[in-house]
Amino acid sequence: MRRRALFRDRQDAGQRLLPLLRPLGLTAPLVYGLLRGGLAVAAPVAEGLHVPLLPFLVRKLGVPWEPELGFGALSEGSDTPVLNDDIVAQCGLSPADIAAVRDREAKELARRRAVYVAGLERPDPRGRAAILVDDGLATGISARAALRSLRAQGAAPLILAVPLAPPDAIDDLTGECDRILCAEVLPIPRGIGGCYDDFHQLTDAEVLALLRGAAKETP
C-alpha cells in the first residue's frame, strides 16, 4: 500500500513553514524562492509574511550519465560553481566534464534570468534579513550555492527554510547560514518528489503567474 505523502503540493509545504518563521519576528525580510520549484513553496511564505516574493536563480550541475545526481551548482551572482568534491571524485569527473556541464547550465541560467528577472526590481539584500526557500534538500548543493551568493551580497541574518530534509543535509549546511528551519527532518529514500502528492516540474508560465500573483498581493 502506498504511503501517504507528507505534502499535498508545494503550496501546502509553504503553509507548513509559516508557523516556523512567524515566531522569529523578522522585520520586512526578503523571501527568495529557488527557481523553479522553490518559488511555489516560497509564494505562501511571502504572502503570509506580507512581503514581496523574489526569485533566485540557481542551476544544479548533474552527473552527465545520471543528471538527477548533482555534483555541483551554479548560482546567480557567481561564475564559479560550488562543487561536491566527494561526488566529483566518486564519479571520476574530469575538468572537461565539469566545464561542459557548467557551460550548458550557464546558458539555461541566462535564459531564465531573461525570462524571470529582467525588469523585476529586487532589493539589495545587504543588511537585510533573507529567507531562502526550496522545496526540499537532497544533497543540498543548490541551496549551498544560493546561500553563499546571498551571504556574499551581505544578507544578514540568512535563513534557510525547507519543508523536508535528511539530517545529514541539514548538518552539512549549518555553517552556510544563520539558521535552518525544516518542517520534516527525516530520511527520504524515495527522493523529495516521493514526499509530495503533486511534485510536477513548474513551467515558465507557472513561474511567471506566481510572480504576477505575488506582486498583486504585496501592498
UniProtKB/TrEMBL annotation:
Gene3D superfamilies linked: 3.40.50.2020, PRTase-like
CDD domains, per the entry: PRTases_typeI
Domain Phosphoribosyltransferase positions: 97-184
Domain of life: Bacteria
Signal peptide range: none
A Pfam family per the record: Pribosyltran
SUPFAM superfamilies assigned to the protein according to its UniProt record, in alphabetical order: PRTase-like (SSF53271)
Gene Ontology molecular function, alphabetical: glycosyltransferase activity
Keywords, in A-Z order: Glycosyltransferase, Transferase
Name this protein carries in UniProt: Phosphoribosyltransferase
Organism whose genome encodes this protein: Roseomonas alba
